[in-house]
Amino acid sequence: MYLNKPPWSEDLLHPSCSSPSASSTALPGGVIDLVKSLNKQRLYREITLALRTTLRDATAEFSFLRVKGLEKLLKFLGSVVESENMIELFRETQTFTEFQVVPVLFHYSIAPSKSGRVLKSDDKSSEERTKIASLPTSNEVALALQVLEGCCLLDRDSRTLAQQHMAIKEIVRLLSAGSTLVQSACLDVLIALMLDSLENQKEFERHHGVRKVIELVKYGYVDEQLRLKCAEFLLLVVGNVLPSSSKFIDNIEDEEGREEPSRIQSVQDDILELLGEDIASLLWAAGQLWSSIDSEKKQTSLQFQAQQLLDCLDSKRYDDAALTL
Question: Does the pTM exceed 0.85?
Fold first, then answer.
């Protein structure tokens, strides 16, 4: 669902130079302010209408209808990102319960209730519940994770709201048990959730998220593209996301100057235990190198370093297997 710009506002705010009256007629400042205000109100109405429509489908009983709603939500977020004004208005809508996207994603698609009944956010009576007639498919869960990623990237408060729904715990669970399609979406949304969110970073460490990713990247029976994405994820996390994870050190101090070794210790332990000291050091060095590369070359460099990490892991696995023979 794309939001269209009305031609009349463009004509008034940006008159064509080819117009014979453009140079001789100047709109009063009050008229321009009025046009901008009307345009903002129109955008807000269109955004709220789009959210109402898509969220209605996303809370449907049947999975195929929810998939339809999630696809519309993705398209809607794609149109929102094109304008700073629409991003600000979208953030404003997320302060109202009836327009919040994150709770719908968790209640209906990512972590639906085992009873199959979900209390609607606008219901006044606890008796009024929507029955989920069909459980989420892998496609639905992957779409929901993509929508969650978009919301978290556009709106900081959505990351906080996701934390209230145990987002990291649920996504780490899906990372271990989901299909390849879902696991790939999990890696993307984890980065968005942990971006500038210390609480979500702590949750990721608490649930041994790094361990789960390493288990996927370490073993050769996992889909090769997923392993490559896991390696890229590890480089991003070690080099950019997790605070104080740039060095394997014994004593870590927080902002107040007090030692806090326990918060990162679990990450260090998981990396050293599962990868070994040599590859753990390589991972840290590559992550730090990638974070200092020019932004235009980062994607290519990330893929190259991730492939190198996989090659080292495979070589080590073959060597270990040869020693056991």
Answer: no
